[in-house]
Amino acid sequence: MALSFASLTNFSKMQSGVWYSGSITPRVTVRCCETAKEPPQKSKLQVGSPIIIVEAPKVIKTAASMPCLRANAGLVKPGDVGRIVSRKPKDLWAVRLSIGTYLLDGKYFKALELEE
């Protein structure tokens, strides 16, 4: 992720106690490098990755075109296995489980390690 900011300004007023009467064009460049903010296990996740539910969410939201938010009455349980369908902003994932596709926060599941 990179962010750039450039500013071009004419100064004809007093700045820091010094008069400027010409064209001064200061440039400010800000760069933001992406750091590993997520736990290492989350970086392995991609579309199609198998996952296992580690904690049951209190409410679940369907990943349908017209989503439905409802209380989790034992539909999604710890130990359920599914696959990632897509990634949404802020560590939200569309996960395909045996009972349907739901939007789940990344804290409720982890990558399933398959041994060959």
List keywords for this structure.
single chain, 116 residues, mainly beta, 7-stranded antiparallel β-sheet, two-stranded antiparallel sheet, 3% helix, globular, CRR42-like, Chlororespiratory reduction 42
Can you walk through the features of this model?
The chain has 116 residues and is mainly beta. The protein is built from one helix and nine strands, in the order ββαβββββββ. The chain has one helix at 40-43, and strands at residues 14-15, 18-19, 50-53, 59-62, 69-71, 81-88, 92-97, 100-105, 109-111. The strands form two sheets. A seven-stranded antiparallel sheet has the order 5-4-8-7-6-3-9, with no helix packed on it. A two-stranded antiparallel sheet has the order 1-2. The longest helix has 4 residues, at 40-43. It is globular and about 60 Å long. The model has no long low-confidence stretch (mean pLDDT 76). One of its GO terms (biological process) is NADH dehydrogenase complex (plastoquinone) assembly. InterPro entries: CRR42-like. This is Chlororespiratory reduction 42.
Instruction: Note the main sheet.
Output: 7 strands, antiparallel
Helix content: under 10%
Note the total helix count. Answer: 1
Average pLDDT figure: 76
- The total beta strand count reads 9
- How do the strands of the widest beta sheet line up side by side? 5-4-8-7-6-3-9
Instruction: Please mark out the parts with pLDDT under 50 across 5 or more consecutive residues, or reply none.
Output: none
Gyration radius, rounded: 24 Å
SSE run: EEHEEEEEEE
Q: What structural category characterises the helix and strand content?
A: mainly beta
Q: Kindly estimate the percentage of residues that lie in beta strands according to DSSP.
A: 25-35%
N-C termini distance = 35 Å
Cα shape: globular
